[in-house]
Every structure is written in C-alpha cells, then in structure tokens.
Amino acid sequence: MDYRATATGREVMRRLCFLLALFLLITESHARGSGDLGIVIERANGSVQVIETSTNTSLGRIDGLGDLSHASAVYSRDSRYAYVFGRDGGLTKVDILSMKIDKRVIQAGNSIGGAISQDGRLVAVSNYEPGGVKIFDAGTLELVADIPAVYGNDKQLSKVIGLVDAPGHKFIFSLWDAGEIWVADLSSPSKPVIRKFKDIGRNPYDALITPDGRYYIAGLFGEDGMALLDLWKLDAGVKRILNNYGKGEQKLPVYKMPHLEGWAIAGNFAFVPAIGRHEVLVIDTTSWKEAGRIKVHGQPVFVMARPDGRNIWVNFAVPDNDTLQVIDTQTLNIVKTLKPGKGVLHMEFEPRGEEVWASVRDEDRLAVFDTETFEQVSSIAAEKPSGIFLTYRAHRTGL
Amino acid sequence: MKRMPFIASFLLASASHLAMADISTERQSELIYLLKQDCGSCHGMTLKGGLGPALLPETLNGKPKELLVTTILEGRTGTAMPPWKTMLTQDEAEWITVQLQQGVK
What we know:
The complex is a heterodimer of chains A (399) and B (105).
Chain A: H1 7-30, E1 37-42, E2 47-52, E3 57-62, E4 72-75, E5 81-85, E6 90-95, E7 100-106, E8 110-116, E9 122-129, E10 132-137, E11 143-148, E12 150-151, E13 156-157, E14 160-166, E15 170-175, E16 180-185, E17 193-197, E18 204-209, E19 215-220, E20 226-230, E21 238-241, E22 264-266, E23 269-273, E24 279-284, E25 289-295, E26 300-305, E27 311-316, E28 324-328, E29 334-338, E30 344-349, E31 355-360, E32 365-370, E33 376-381, E34 385-390
Antiparallel strand pairs in A: 1-2, 1-34, 2-3, 4-5, 5-6, 6-7, 8-9, 9-10, 10-11, 12-13, 14-15, 15-16, 16-17, 18-19, 19-20, 20-21, 22-23, 23-24, 24-25, 26-27, 27-28, 28-29, 30-31, 31-32, 32-33
Chain B: H1 3-12, H2 25-43, H3 57-60, H4 65-74, H5 90-102
Helix pairs in contact in B: 4-5
C-alpha cells in the first residue's frame, strides 16, 4: 500500500479544494440581507426593478408581471418576497433575492391593491371587477376566502378600495359604489366574519390606517369630509370628520385621485391631500378638527411624512406633476420646491429618512434626493416608473 | 392609415371645426400619451376600465360622438370625470374620440 499521494491524487485534491472555495465564495456572496432593498414598478412594461438603497443602484429587472398600469406591493415578513398587485387582477409573488417570479395567479379581471395580514400568512386583494376582496395563502397563493362586495337590494357588486391590514387578524376596506366600510376578521381564515358599516359617505376613494393600527380613515370623493372608524371602539361606529371642509365652495375638477397611503403625521397634526384644491389639509388628531390649510403648487396626490415627521413631501396631479414640494411641519411653510421632471408619480423615503426616492415617469428615471440639502444624489434609469416600495414596509401595519 | 376615419369625421363635422385636421403628428403622439397615462389613471392604461368605465370601441361605439366629446371637455357632473377643456381644445377632444372609437393601440 502506498500512502503517499500520487501526482494525480494531489491534482485532484487541489481541484476539489479550489471548487469548494469557489462554492463557498459564491454562496457567501449570495447570502445577503434584504433590509436595504426594494422594488420599483415599471408600469408600461409589466416589469419591476429591484433597487438597493445603500449605494442607490438597480440590481436587475424582473419581467412578466402583466398590466402594472396601477400597481402596488406589500412584503412578506421576512422581506424576501414582494406581492405585487396588478391592474389586470394579477397577483405576483416575487423573490427579490433570487430576482425571480415565485408564483403568479390571475385572481380577478381588474384590481386595485392589496394587503398582507398581521401574521404574514394571508394576502388580500381588493378588486374592481368582480367587486370584492379575495384572500390568499401567502405561501402558495391558493384562494382561502372570497368576499364579494355585495350591497343594496339589487345585490350589486361594489368596487373595493382602501384595503389595509389591522391588528387582530383583520382586513379593513371600503366600497366605492356602496359607501360602506367593512371590517373582516380572519381569525378563522376560511370563515371570515364581516362587520359592515353603512352610510359612511358617498364614494370613498382611498383609505389609510394609523401606524398604531387604531384608526381607519376613508377619504370621500362624493362629498366633503372623511369617514373615521376607531377600531378600538367599533361599537361607536363611523364618525364624520372635516365636515365643514369645502362647504359652500364650488367643487373643483380632480385630474387624479389622491392617495391616502401612509399617514403623514407630526406631533398631533396629520396632513392629507385636499380633493381638487391646491391645498394640503392639516388635521388636529386630538379633536379630528381642521387645524389649517397649506397652499401648494397643484392638486396633491401623495402627501408623505419623512419618517421623523419634520417635513412633509407632496407631489401633484397633471398638469402640475413635474413638481415636488416640501412643507416644514413646525412652521407649515413650504421650504422647498423641486422640479425633477414631468410625471413625478410616487415617492418613497428610505427607512430612516435621510434620502427619498421619486419616480419621474416621463424622463424614464428615478431621482434620489437628500432630504436635508434637497440635492439630487442619484439618478437611476427605469422605464415609466410608478410606485416605489422598500422592504421596511414588511414591518409596518397598513403598508 | 389613420387618415381615413379622420377625413370621414372631418366631412361630418361642421364648418366651425375646420381646424381639426391640423393636429400635428407631434401633438397627436402627445394626446395618445395623455390618453394612456393620465386618462389611464382612472380608465386603466390599456383603457379597459378602473375606477372609471372602460373606453374600448365596444363600450363607446353605441354612443353619439358629440356626447363623448362633451364628456371629455366638460366632464360629467355627479361623477369623478373632470372637464379637460383647460388642457384640450375642441378639435383635440374630437380627435381623441375618433381614436377611442377606432381603438387605441
């Protein structure tokens, strides 16, 4: 027996060691966190880009998500998967680490948005056609429950908007055609228990939930004011707030429905877009009364607070959608007006707020701004970008 | 290709709409862009409908052209449809109506 390694044996060993090292190197480089990642919707192409906020770069593109002309996304609680809700009723589960579509279903004809449950096990989608909410298993995307938004004596189906998750295994949403808010308890996922609040006001167009998960507020398109539901006191019902807003004034045309995503809040003040008017409304959240109005450049679409609440950033409807304005929440003055280019559709703050990403649709790019100096720090190519969704949303109620 | 329905509607239109054939190619592509991107925010980018109704030939062809033009320019009271007359001329609204009834690619 010769125990000395032969030349061939040494060569084999050397090659094996090399391959092992290479393997470790590859797996090591693929093991990364997702806390600095996000996706950008490319609305015209049905694609998303995975972006990275540590160095402000794009990591790649994922195609094949269908019609994303109005799309939004939520994240699994491990913030590895993005659930993308497309206009065509497509629900796509995207693995942002391997940059592949994990699963995809067409669950309706026309849909508007979605939410993920408190425990991360259920994904809900709100649909225009057929009007209602469908609930899916977050792992398999199998249908768990179907909640048609039936209303009135004729059993019509209403378009559903403003779908959010809430503590206590709940999803809450509003019925555009019916003027109702529904609270669905999914403690038993396949047997949702629905509590309906009727006559909340005409045409709720969007809604939000406060970050603590206590208040659900729907904006009304068909009349003045907003509908407020205290989820800690459901028996008290829906209360109308800001009822005097706009009273006696001529209604103004609205060129794009405002969004109420997120909650622009600073101290006791909340900031919301005024409908049709070139104003941001300030609400005192201790009394839910109007505390002021701030004149802005156009009809506000998104009114979003920097995570520390010091500033509010606002974008606008066409024809003023080339502009962003920044409001100081201490003085309620506009401290900066930016002109990133035509078609500024959405903004997303980095988790601790030092930078903000904006999609500039008509220039096919994303612009990243320093939120202290207002200087543009990065510009990244993207095709007709709209919504930007970073992974910190995985751990926020209502996002 | 797109000239034919254009001429047809031109002949049907009254004399006051003589200028409608004068929409430049550049403006035409701007109008299509506005239609897909901005009308699309309510009606869907592919015009299959959203919060607003679908704007496909099969949903529009039964409706009088004047009604559609007026809806674009003046909006519809009691609905979310705003008047676009601050951004569009009468001729442009008519041109858009023709495109919608033909089907926008």
